[in-house]
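So, can you check these C-alpha cells?
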Amino acid sequence: MENVLRPLIVLGGSVVLTLLVGWAVDRLLQRADRRHPETPLWDLLRRCRLPYQLVLCSALLRGSYDQARIARDHTAFIGQVLSLVLIGATAWLVVRIATAIVESSYTRYADQHRDAARVRRVRTQITLIQRIVTAVVGVVAVAAMLLMFPSFRAAGASLLASAGIISVVAGVAAQSTLGNLFAGFQIAFGDMVRIGDTVVVDGEWGTIEEVTLTYLAVRTWDERRITMPVSYFTSKPFENWSRGGAQMTGTVFFHLDHSAPIDAMREKLHDILRECPAWDGRNWGLAVTDTTPSTLEVRAVVTAKDADDIWTVRVTVREHLVRWLADQHPYALPRVNTAAAVLPPDTDSVVSLSRDGRPPRTGRG
C-alpha cells in the first residue's frame, strides 16, 4: 500500500500545491491591478502564470522525486530531465517578466509624452533591448543545459584550448552577421530610423514596421513587406520623412498652355485647399516655374501634418484643378498646334517650296 500512496502523495501533492500557489499569485495580481489601474505591469505579469507554475512544479518534483521511489533504476536520468525542464522554464519565466516590465515602462512613457518622434524612438530601443535580453537568456539557458551532461563539460577544456582558431574562423564566416548586429545597435541608439517612420528606401515608399538586430521590415503603401538588412541603413543614403518632425510640404506640377489663367488657378487652388480636411493650413502657393516652346510648367505647393495627409492633399489638388480647367478653361490644357505657319513680313528672305517640291531659283543664273 505504501508503494502506491507514496508516489501519489509526492506527485499529486506537487501538482496540487503548484495549482494552489499559481491561483493565489494570480488573485494577488488581480487585486493589485484593480488598485493601480494606471500601471499595466500587474496585468502583464499575469501572463507569467504558466511559466511560473511550470517552474514551481518542476522544482517541487526535482526536490521530492527521490521520496516517491519510482523507477529507481532510472533516477539519475529522470532527475536530469527534470533539471532540464526547470532550466528551460526558468528562462521562459525570466523572458516573460522582462517583457512585462518593458511593455509597462513603454506604455507609461507613451501616455506621459505626446512627442510622437520621441515615443517611436523609445519603442525602437526597448524592442531591440527586449530582443537582446531574450537572446542572452536563451544562450545562458542552453549553456546551463549543456553543462548538465558530463561529456560537454569534458569537451570544454579542448574548446578553450582552440578558442583562438575558432574565433578567427567564426569572425571570417560571420562577418556579415556581426556587421548587421552592430548596425542594429547603431540604429537603435543612434536615432537614425524608428518604428513608424515614413521612409523612401531604394525607390520604395513605406513605413518602418519592425526593427530587429539583423533586419528591418518596411511596409509599403500597397501592403507589401520589404525586408532589408540593417547594414543598408548605415552604409547607404535613404529618405526619412519623419525625422525632425512629421510635417511635410508637397508639390503638384501641371503642364499647361501659355494662355492658362494663372491668377484664376491660384484662387481656385485656395478654394480647393479650404475644403480639403487633410490640409493643415500652414502654407500654399502656385507659380510658373518653367516654360517650353509649347507649354508652361506650373507648380502648386501645399502642406500637411504628415506623409499620409500630404499624399491626400496632392491627389485632391491634382484631380480638382484638372477637372476645373477642363470644364471652365479647356483652352488652357496642353495641345498640339496644327495651325498654318505664319510667315514673317519679309518673304523674299524666306526660302519657300514650290509646287513640285523643289525650292525656287533666286538671283541670277
